Amino acid sequence: MVAVINTGRSIRAILNYNENKVSTGAAQCIGEGNYPMDVQNMNSSFKLNMLLKQLELNENVTRNSVHISLNFDPSEKELSKEKLMEIAGSYMDKIGFRDQPYLVYQHHDAGHPHIHIVSIKVKADGSRIDMQNIGKNQSETARKEIETQFNLVRAESKKKTTVMDLKPLNVHKIEYGVSDSKKAIAGILNAVIPHYKFTTIGELNAVLNLYNVSVLQGKEDSKMFLHKGLLYQIIDADKKPIGVPIKASSFHFRPTLKTLEQKFQANRKSRVPDMKRVRNSIDMAFLKNSSINLDELEKKLLKEGIAIIYRQSSQGLVYGITYVDHTTKCVFNGSALGVQYAAKAMLERCGNVRVKPDENNYENKIQKEEATKNPAFISERELQKIIDSILQPEYASEYIPPSLKGRRKKRKRKGQSDN
After folding, report:
1. Which H, E and C letters describe 264-330, residue by residue?
2. What tens digit of pLDDT does each residue of 29-58 get?
3. Distance of alpha carbon 8 from alpha carbon 119, whole angstroms
4. Residues forming a β-bridge with 211
5. pLDDT of residue 368
6. What is the DSSP letter of 160?
7. Low-confidence residues in the chain, pLDDT < 50
């Protein structure tokens, strides 16, 4: 069994997410805890109002909502509703939520059996439940005890696998039109965002693109970009958008730019120890075969659980490279690992570009002719220079708004009195 705990600011959004699943037949509310009546006698308004009423006892708790998912092994599909309710009740008791009102939903939209538990952090006396390190401490202890108590498949036993058998995610590429777009995108985001360590939108996109999903910020002068909006959209095999993009704020777990920026900050530190593994894997590949080409390098790294993602222009020019380590769940832009692992250096190491282009080369002659005919034409070499200059990091002194600056004291002139 695997337990995932999330907290939020809106119990209404969390409850609506689960109730919407029920309305589409993708879930069922199978039980409750500490409600005055059975679930079959309650409508969605009653379920919500009871939780809201208790939250009013302490309005200082901002992240007041709790959304827990308990995930079971695919072989445990025959778990009855009664047993699932017993497991949910035991889990809530062990993590300190015994007396809290909660609702249990059984979802049917994944390849493995799982339930969602909706609750709140405010107690009946108005006090707040402390959830600091609850996942590492109470939840982990509860999980192990429940696996033994109910004879469930242990989570640790599923981790014993070789690198060769590793798969990036227990999800599949989205096929447009096969399932509900929002539900399909939400499944990919749930599998990627909480588990992978990325530090930019570009690095996140490198993983999402593997599953035919793309995150969009809009152009720099667009209203969406200026207001820090994000859209998620399905893409095809050629990375062309399909269907209608969906706002980040419309997903119940809110994968907005504000949320992602918090992860960026945390991931910058937590992924540092895993950089060495990717560097060593690349260096070892070149050590064994100094004349290795890009295709061979990709295959060797893939055996180590590392995927190479290229960023290319419409003409096929590679101007960026990203490494996705599915073993450590870390994503690195090439330059983050060091200059020798960036796109330009990797292409040169693999013999795919000329370090010193021959000016009399046929390809360069064609480019010169094109430049003469069309003044707006930019050669691939010039384009690479522009890209390199754009990607060059800049260091600017910290900006301090005028309102926060101390008032400058005027110096008195010699012989000038205060009067």
Report:
1. HHHHHHHCHHHHHHHHHHHHHHHHHCCCCCHHHHHHHHHHCCEEEEEEECCCCCEEEEEEEECCCCE
2. 999 999 999 999 999 999 999 999 999 999
3. 11
4. none
5. 47
6. -
7. 159-170, 353-379, 390-399
Cβ density class 258-281: b for 16+ within 10 Å, e for less: eebeebbeebeeebeeebebbeeb
316: its two tokens? 């096929």
Residue 352, pLDDT score: 64
pLDDT for res 155:
81
Query: What is the distance between the alpha carbons of residues 269 and 254, in angstroms, rounded to a whole number?
Result: 23
Mean pLDDT score of the chain: 81
* pLDDT for 60: 94
Instruction: State how far the Cα of 154 lies from the Cα of 103, in Å rounded to an integer.
Output: 25
Q: How far apart are CA 179 and CA 173, in angstroms?
A: 12
How many CA atoms lie within 13 Å of 86's alpha carbon, on the beta-carbon side? 11
For the stretch 118-155, what's the b/e string if a residue is b when 16 or more beta carbons lie within 10 angstroms of its beta carbon? bbbbbeeeeeebebeebbeebbeebbeebbeebebeeb
